[in-house]
């Protein structure tokens, strides 16, 4: 293709803005259509692993992020549910940057979204534009507007309208797990939760993760439990504090203190989707959770969305015809995101073992493990230089 393609991105979340930022950096203009009237993120945190930090550096936004992101000293600190016994912990202070050239950080999702937005020209963003259907390269919006593009990128999350245009792409299903989340003022949090550490308390059928964000002013808490009949997948749904505490009855008192300090929690059901066989049909492709929603047990969903964005922008900038560029993008990205979807899935079983011989064997194995090196295939990867 000799002239620049017209590129439409549906969704202005982490993946959609990252796509716009990488496309812009590659000299390819695009328009992002976001349904919300303003760019916003839910009040929650996320881990910026080295593979994500590396891409934020390439976009020139990592430095701004580190004003509020917390650099972790300790990662993968697994504790026993009843009494907080440390089963294993990883010292990240020097080793993470030595191994992978970047540190691991934790951050507020809104800060990551703002950092990505700063790398996108404001004229590329159209807010309050809810896409209702996609046919070939034509998007139809709720307000009646129609837009035709040479390339359509569906970055519209787990309930993707763009994905629904693919006849064979089944919607994700309920996983039987739900998550509670809360942000706790650090001043009210018990000591273990105030350290620059990512801690995972694991126990029968449940686990709870916490780490500080927002320059250490807040502690992000997310906890996983059986969903029962709960099937609401929404970042804005809430539960009662009593429901949250009941799930963690009998757990270490410091953990219950942390839960109490968070007040009314958010709650949502985790969705599950087997890896798709294709992401692209003609001029339309998918990116981020629309393409490969994954359990959050490796803390890699946002990172994979940004990796998708980096590879897709390079494929489109290669000068290949759009269909060929999308085919190449899919071929580069699918094996990695499929592996992460499967690995994240397997973690639910391991983290939630009931006390007994299998749990004791797991705990003994944890003591000898080195997740920082074991996960080298995740953290060492540079999507910005993958030859795709
Ligand atoms: C509990 C939990 C913890 C997590 N922790 C981590 C972590 O530590 N590290 C990590 O890397 N990842 C983490 N993730 C995963 C990460 O949050 C997601 O993978 C990431 O947000 C996906 O980004 P996305 O842009 O694909 O989708 P989304 O963030 O869902 O964004 C989709 C956007 O599209 C818009 N949209 C939707 N439909 C339409 C439409 N029809 N028209 C126009 N716009 C539309 C939405 O408004 C939204 O802005 C976690 C996820 C969960 C659930």
UniProtKB/TrEMBL annotation:
<protein>
    <submittedName>
        <fullName>FAD-dependent monooxygenase</fullName>
    </submittedName>
</protein>
<feature type="region of interest" description="Disordered">
    <location>
        <begin position="341"/>
        <end position="363"/>
    </location>
</feature>
<dbReference type="InterPro" id="IPR036188">
    <property type="entry name" value="FAD/NAD-bd_sf"/>
</dbReference>
<dbReference type="InterPro" id="IPR002938">
    <property type="entry name" value="FAD-bd"/>
</dbReference>
<feature type="domain" description="FAD-binding">
    <location>
        <begin position="7"/>
        <end position="342"/>
    </location>
</feature>
<dbReference type="Pfam" id="PF01494">
    <property type="entry name" value="FAD_binding_3"/>
</dbReference>
<keyword id="KW-0560">Oxidoreductase</keyword>
<keyword id="KW-0285">Flavoprotein</keyword>
<keyword id="KW-0503">Monooxygenase</keyword>
<dbReference type="InterPro" id="IPR050493">
    <property type="entry name" value="FAD-dep_Monooxygenase_BioMet"/>
</dbReference>
<keyword id="KW-0274">FAD</keyword>
<dbReference type="GO" id="GO:0004497">
    <property type="term" value="F:monooxygenase activity"/>
</dbReference>
